């Protein structure tokens, strides 16, 4: 799946969502099937956004924060259920964020717990980052 011009792998396909068209944030989503070598549209996100984070866990693609209308920062979070082709809104973040990074570690979107639908403040980084990337290796977030 391609989200905001980022390809995210889920199972045997990839996807894309969001971005900007003619000055407006869009909620479009597309899915690429490498076996068929074909892109197809998926259910649009509930909210148009750009500069949002994406993270994958258990067949779900989370779209986190970003910017909405008039480039305003967002707290809203939703996930795409690959099997059901539907976006579901979850608890918003405690603060608005865009251009951030997101990863899952120990079944938690750092630091969102999907089981309790709640957020927890994490330890601040020593240096602020913008449009950073994050990856989990051997139980550590880099």
TrEMBL record:
Superkingdom of origin: Eukaryota
InterPro entries recorded: Kelch-BTB_domain-containing, Kelch-typ_b-propeller, Kelch_1
Keywords, in A-Z order: Kelch repeat
Protein name: Kelch repeat protein
Pfam families reported in the protein's UniProt record: Kelch_1
């Amino acid at each position: 799946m391609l989200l905001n011009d980022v390809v995210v792998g889920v199972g045997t396909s990839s996807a894309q969502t969001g971005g900007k068209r003619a000055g407006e944030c869009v909620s479009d989503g597309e899915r690429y099937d490498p076996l068929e070598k074909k892109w197809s549209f998926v259910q649009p996100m509930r909210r148009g956004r750009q500069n949002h984070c994406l993270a994958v866990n258990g067949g779900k693609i989370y779209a986190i924060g970003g910017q909405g209308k008039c480039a305003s920062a967002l707290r809203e979070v939703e996930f795409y259920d690959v099997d059901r082709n539907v976006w579901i809104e979850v608890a918003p973040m405690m603060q608005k964020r865009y251009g951030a990074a997101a990863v899952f570690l120990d079944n938690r979107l750092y630091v969102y717990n999907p089981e309790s639908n709640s957020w927890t403040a994490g330890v601040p980084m020593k240096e602020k980052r913008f449009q950073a990337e994050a990856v989990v290796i051997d139980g550590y977030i880099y």
